[in-house]
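COURSE: Structural Biology Practicum
ASSIGNMENT: Worksheet 4, Part C
STUDENT ID: 0417
INSTRUCTIONS: Below are two proteins. For each, the amino acid sequence is given first, followed by its C-alpha cell string. Answer the questions at the end about the second protein only.

PROTEIN I
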Amino acid sequence: MSLRWLVLFDIDGTLLSASGISARALGAALLEVFRTEGPIDGYDYSGKTDPQIVRELMRAAGLAEAVIENKRAEALERYRVRLQASLRSEHVVAKPGVHALVEALAADPRVALGLLTGNLEPCARLKLEPLGLNGRFSFGAFGSDDEDRSRLPALAVERAYARTRTRFEGKSTVIVGDAVADVLCGRNLGVRAVAVATGRTPASALAAAGPDALLPDLADTQRALAAIRGEPA
C-alpha cells in the first residue's frame, strides 16, 4: 500500500506539556549570556521558533541587533544544556489522546509521521523521550533549521521525500498544531491544517485563522483521524 499522507506534529501544547521547564531553562540561559531575560513573564511562545524567541525577547530588552546576532547561538546552546540538565520524566505530560493517536497513525501504512516544531531538534528530542515517542518521529523540521516558522513545512516535505521517495503535495501534507502559526505556516504549500485547542491559544483565535479542522483535543482518536484524513467524523 502506497503512502498517502504526511502528518507533521507540533510538540509543545500539541503533543505534550513540559511544565514550564523550557521557559525557566531559557530564562537562565539568557541571563548568563545577555545579562537580561527580557520581558519573559507573560511572553507568548506559541508557534514561534527558539531562535525567534531569543531575538524577540532581547529586542524587547533594548539590545542591539548586532549583539543579539553575535551571542544568540551561545544562548541557545546554554539553553539546550540547561534543559538537558533540568528536564525530568515527571515534568513531561502527554496531551489527552496523544499516545493512542500516534500509535494509530504509525500503524497505518498510508501515513508517514514527522515533526514540525519551533524547538531546536535536540530540545525536541529531550521532550519526547520521556513519552517514548522519539521512535515514531524519525524526521522533521525544527527551529534549529530556520528561525522563520513559515519555511519549515517545505523543508519537512523535502525530508519526507528523501526518506520515503514519495512526493507529498497539497492536502496530502497535514500539519497538526495548537497555535495560529501552525495553521498558517503551510498555507503557501496548500497543506491541510488541523488545529487543536490544547495549548495557550483560544479555540476562537484558532478558528479565526481558518484551519481545515478544529478539535478541542486529541482524546477522540477516531475523530482526530478523520480530521487528519479529511474524512467525515
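PROTEIN II
(use this one for the questions)
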Amino acid sequence: MPHLFERAPTGRAKCRGCGASLAAGEWRFGERLPNPFAEGDAEMTHWFHPACAAFKRPEAFVAWIDAGGWVERPGASDAPDRDLLEREARLGIAHRRLARVDAASRAPSGRASCRACRSPIEKGTWRIGLVYYEDGRFVPSGFIHPGCAREYLETVDILPRVRHFSQRPNPLSEDEIRDLAAAIG
C-alpha cells in the first residue's frame, strides 16, 4: 500500500517526528511500512506532520511525491506548502545526515561532547541535537556544535529544521534564531 496524505479523522494519533498530537482535521502524512509483529504482508502506518515527514523521513516523502501522491485537492487551500516541503525533503536526501537534526538548545552543563569534532560543548553555548531512526522511533544520539554543522551535515542549510523542532516546550525567539544562525556561520 502506498504512503498516505490525509486529514486526521480524530486527534488520537501523535507525530513520530516531533511527538505532538495530530489534531482532528489537521493534515498528516502516513508512512506505510511492513509490520514486524504480524504474519504475512501486514502493514502499519507511522503518522507525521507533513513538515516532520519532509525533515525526518525524506526518502518516504519524496517517494510519495514522485509517485504522484501530491495532487491539488478541492477545498485544500490550507494544505502545506508543497514546494517548501519538497525542497527540504530533497535536501535531506542529498545530505544523508540532515534527517538527524533535531532541536537546538543551550547546553545546561559542559558534559556533552560534539559528535563531529569530539571536543566538549561548553555550558551555556548552543548545541544542535541529533537523533537516529531505529525500529520506528527517533532515538537521541548526541549533539554537535553549530559551527560543526558544515563538516558533520555537509550543509549549513539547517535553520528551517532546527526552528521546526525547537518549538516545544518553549519556541526559540527571533533573537535566539539570529544568534544560532551566526553560530552556524
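ANSWER KEY EXCERPT:
Q1: The mean pLDDT is 92.
Q2: The helical segments are 50-56, 58-66, 82-94, 149-153, 159-165, 174-184.
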